[in-house]
Amino acid sequence: MGHITTYIDQFGYIVLFVALLLELIAVPLPGELLMCYSGFLVYQGHLNWWLSIVVAGVGACIGMTISYWVGYKLGTPFFDKYGHRFHMGKDRIENISSWFNKYGNKLLILAYFIPGVRHITGYFSGITKLPFRTYAGFAYTGAFLWVAVFITIGKILGPQWELFHTLIKKYLLIGIVVAVCILAVIYLYKKYKGKLKNAALKIGKRTLAIFRSFNQVEVLTLCTAMASLGCVIIWLE
């Protein structure tokens, strides 16, 4: 990371553009940290905030465009045969495929915040022949959202931007797990929404039927007991 920050100190926007382009075609570069450092330079007044977001976003979009067309032209047979050499083997492609089946094209936006996934989504979209206009709409939106978030974090943290490196290592896995769980819950809710509503209605009807089966004396006794319990709790406090 040290030599990259030296380059960005010297060449500014050019390094930011090239680095984000390369990262999105799966060159192993610390994109988040680089953007946070760029945000720190914005804090110092060496870079412009809006221009940094535009330059980084355009670099990311071009990288995603290249990866899409590479996947589109080479197709499934190439990646099945040679993908394992650059961490894009058949198993990994299948995992991404299952994610797309669950979450749809929205994954193109969310994937930017998941290291190891964002580098593959472009190739996968090309392999599966996702219409380019659809792909570009989601991928480019995600790109600018991604760079805006991390450059802004660096700008806000200022001299403490390096703390982000420690925090992201510590909490990234937890964040990914939580995000996946939330997405899974949303997916299951959408898929079984009708069944859940029916189950809730059945439970409500049964509860109401049980309540109606009580006579007035039982209801009065229950309410009195609950009120007495509330008074005792208040008195103890």
Could you walk me through the main structural features you see in this protein, from its secondary elements to its overall organization?
It is a single chain. By secondary structure, the protein is mostly helical. The chain is built from eleven helices and no strands. The N and C termini lie far apart (57 Å). The chain folds into two domains: 2-168, no CATH class; 194-236. The mean pLDDT is 77. Helix 2 runs parallel beside helix 4, helix 4 crosses helix 7 (118-127) and helix 4 crosses helix 8 (132-157).
Number of strands: 0
Note the overall shape: flat
Order of helices and strands: HHHHHHHHHHH
* Class computed from helices, strands and strand pairing: mainly alpha
The profile of the biggest β sheet is:
none
Count of individual helical segments: 11
Rg measurement, Å: 26 Å
On the 0 to 100 scale, the average pLDDT is 77
State the helicity in percent bands: over 70%
DSSP strand (E) fraction?
under 5%
- The overall number of domains is 2
Query: How far is it from the N-terminal to the C-terminal residue, by CA?
Result: 57 Å
Which stretches are low in confidence, meaning pLDDT under 50 for 5 or more residues running? Answer: none
What labels describe this entry?
11 helices; 237 residues; mainly alpha
Quick gist of this model?
By secondary structure, the protein is an all-alpha fold. It folds into 2 domains: 167 residues, no CATH class; 43 residues.
